[in-house]
Specification:
6 strands; single chain; alpha+beta; Immunoglobulin-like; about 110 residues
Length: about 110
């Protein structure tokens, strides 16, 4: 959210108008208010966006610009073959150990 604050010595009503000067296209939600929310685009490389707000009191105009960087964020997702709770390896090892013990006892009894 971006915010502008204007002041008029005559107490005239102020109007606000936000616009984009440069950069990848952003979407404004109600660009005619003192506070504006924008939706940023997805970018493949980091890019600079410049916005401009115009404040008008019916006679005089004030204009300010601001710039910011929209960055490309790469989300890395890794998956493993084990259960997500991490207990899959212990269960397999325990089962293998139990099998070896039972097999050893069984072979010992046969001899």
């Amino acid at each position: 959210m971006f915010s502008a604050q204007g002041r008029d010595e005559d107490s005239d009503e102020l109007t606000y108008s936000w616009s984009q000067v440069s950069g990848p296209t952003v979407t404004f939600q109600d660009a005619n208010t003192a506070q504006v929310t924008i939706t940023l685009p997805e970018v493949s490389i980091s890019e600079v966006v410049t916005l401009e707000v115009t404040v008008f009191d019916g006679n005089l105009i004030g204009i300010k610009t601001t710039s910011f960087i929209v960055s490309n964020v790469i989300e890395v997702v890794t998956e493993s073959a084990q259960n997500k709770d991490g207990s899959g390896g212990e269960i397999r090892f325990g089962s293998l150990l139990l099998f070896v013990i039972v097999y050893y006892r069984c072979c010992k009894l046969i001899r």
